[in-house]
Specification:
The protein is an alpha+beta fold. Helix content is 32%, strand content 25%. The protein has 17 helices and 23 strands. The strands form 4 sheets. It has a 7-stranded mixed β-sheet with strand order 14-15-16-17-19-18-20, with no helix packed on it. Strands 12-11-10-21-22-23 form a 6-stranded mixed β-sheet. It has a 5-stranded mixed β-sheet with strand order 1-2-6-5-13. A hairpin with a 2-residue loop joins strand 14 and strand 15. Helix 2 packs across helix 5 and helix 4 packs parallel to helix 7.
Length: 560
């Protein structure tokens, strides 16, 4: 029996007006070819800890074109598979002047798509979206899908992942059911991206990604106390090195433009290799990952892309933290300076993708700001220890729990909205995930840009029903008046502006979409629904929608 040479992919990653990046994982060292429009592009694989990858740089394309492509491994076509039943995979270059349309979401577990998996984790919204796109019809393709955190769960593993772990080590020894090394990360990504429908979707739809905590471990870098506790274990160093190395290979490399890849030291080592043999960058990548963890300023995971009159800034709010108690920051000084430089007007829409919501429901924001103050000693040493325990137990670690960073960002976004950094955009929208419920909220302002938070979480990992009630109470009920009181008791200043909900919350698995239209920024959320017990073919159903109209239109026609 012949082994299929392609392990994962092809995945369509960075695409602009004239170029595209196609990522693959192969079973052995190989030469990879992409053929499209009578032309061909090649790349050799590179090796990392016994696994083989390639990123084929497809260039010289015409703007605004849609071209089917094929992929060869060592001269033999392996994609598309004519027997798959899916439409041909295509390269769709950006069309100059075309308004952006994109999908986004976060928090997706990798369990089977049968009745059992859907009962425990709900329908995979990404897969429902993929199946809907196979039918063609009137639904336009997005230009991009942004996965904004927890693409994989390294700490809460499925039965399939645990079976793999048992086959290679004692699962009762630390770190137990959690991931230990690169080999286990590679298998976790295989489970996440090997479903045929999702695999087909990602072979055509360009993707951008950023990590959150579960890509490494729950509460990753929540505090200095947490970090020291992890570093005292026998397994954490291997885990963080493997996690960041795997993230670079499976997620981050494809985020980069050709110009950004030209400045990436590991990638340049790969492309400068001229020998016939495959280059192995395992040692170099591990050293890079170790350095990136120890010195966050040594590498930037955040990135920025412009799509005509829309700018998308994707923010690392995990690895770039500063955890010293006297200067805690969700985004450290270097990362904030980079972000500050890109928060500019002159765009119709400014999108800021941060895995952690910038604007939590106000009650929860107050609770998190109070918890940070208490954990830093506002109520004394004994309360500080209790506050730290509460922070880790309840995941009180969003922008509101890092008041220095929250206020810095609030000042920046207010300047942009007031037109102090160029012409004020119509909208400034924070796209987030993490919290396992979805909602939209807006800063209460009478003029300038509309400042909106739009959360899409989870794609597939719903909160248990009891936790849903707890989350609603913590976020929207008693948390607001109680949060105000306790925050003030710890001498936490009020936020520089107020905000309130305009949609939600809802707890369905869902994938959000947005589109820049003449009427404003349209956002909608979709979920997968099983009809007649057919769990393998869910349909896509809209959950909610909102249009964020420009300020003048909103004022003339009432709330939109």
């Amino acid at each position: 029996m012949t082994t299929f040479p392609l392990v994962l992919g092809p995945m369509m990653r960075y695409v602009d007006e004239t170029s595209a990046s196609v990522w693959v994982e192969t079973r052995t060292a190989a030469r990879i070819s992409v053929r499209a429009g009578g032309r061909g592009w090649e790349a050799k694989t590179f090796a990392v800890h016994g696994h083989h990858y390639a990123l084929v740089e497809v260039d010289g394309l015409e703007p605004g074109t849609v071209t089917s492509y094929a992929l060869d491994v060592n001269g033999t076509q392996v994609w598309p598979d004519p027997a798959s039943g899916f439409p041909p995979s295509v390269i769709a270059t950006l069309k100059p002047g075309k308004p952006l349309r994109m999908a986004y979401g976060s928090c997706r577990t990798s369990v089977p798509h049968d009745e059992s998996g859907n009962r425990t984790h709900g329908v995979d919204s990404l897969r429902a979206f993929a199946l809907r796109m196979t039918t063609g019809g009137e639904l336009p393709w997005p230009d991009l899908v942004a996965f904004i955190g927890d693409q994989v769960y390294a700490d809460v593993t499925s039965e399939q992942m645990q079976e793999f772990i048992r086959g290679r080590r004692d699962i009762k020894a630390p770190p137990g059911e959690e991931l230990k090394d690169y080999e286990e990360y590679a298998h976790l990504y295989f489970l996440a991206w090997s479903d045929p429908a999702n695999r087909w979707l990602l072979s055509t739809l360009p993707s951008a990604m950023i990590f959150d905590d579960h890509d490494i471990r729950d509460d990753w870098n929540t505090s200095l106390s947490w970090k020291k506790k992890m570093e005292a274990t026998s397994w954490w160093h291997g885990r963080i090195v493997a996690g960041l190395a795997a993230y670079w290979v499976y997620q981050h490399l494809g985020n980069l433009s050709p110009q950004e890849r030209a400045g990436d030291a590991v990638w340049q080592q790969i492309v400068r290799h001229t020998g016939e043999d495959e280059i192995d960058v395992s040692s170099e990548l591990d050293s890079f990952a170790d350095r990136a963890d120890r010195d966050p300023d040594s590498y930037r995971w955040s990135y920025c892309r412009d799509f005509g009159d829309t700018r998308l800034i994707v923010v690392d709010s995990r690895a770039a933290r500063h955890l010293a108690p006297d200067a805690r920051a969700l985004v450290d000084r270097t990362a904030m300076a980079w972000l500050d430089d890109r928060m500019r007007g002159g765009f119709r829409h400014l999108l800021v993708a941060t895995s952690l919501p910038f604007l939590l429901p106000m009650g929860l924001h107050y609770v998190e700001s109070w918890n940070e103050a208490v954990s830093q000693g506002a109520w004394g040493k004994l309360a500080a220890r209790a506050g730290e325990s509460l922070r880790q137990a309840l995941d009180l670690e969003h922008w509101g729990a890092f008041q220095n960073s929250f206020r810095d960002m609030a000042a920046i976004v207010t300047d942009v909205a007031d037109g102090k950094r160029g012409t004020a955009p119509d909208t400034i929208t924070f796209l987030s995930g993490d919290v396992h419920y979805s909602y939209a909220s807006e800063v209460e302002r009478a003029s300038g840009s509309r400042i909106v938070q739009a959360v899409s979480s989870p794609i597939r990992n719903p909160l248990p029903r009891l936790m849903r009630s707890f989350a609603a109470v913590m976020s929207y009920a008693l948390a607001t008046p109680v949060g105000v009181l306790v925050a003030r008791s710890a001498k936490v200043p009020d936020p520089p502006f107020r905000w309130s909900g305009i949609k939600g919350p809802w707890f369905d698995n869902n994938l959000a979409c947005l589109e820049a239209t003449p009427e404003g920024l349209k956002l909608w959320w979709q979920t997968g629904v099983v009809d007649g017990g057919d769990h393998l073919h869910p349909r896509l159903e809209r959950v909610a929608a909102v249009t964020v109209a420009p300020r003048s239109a909103a004022n003339s026609s009432g709330p939109v």
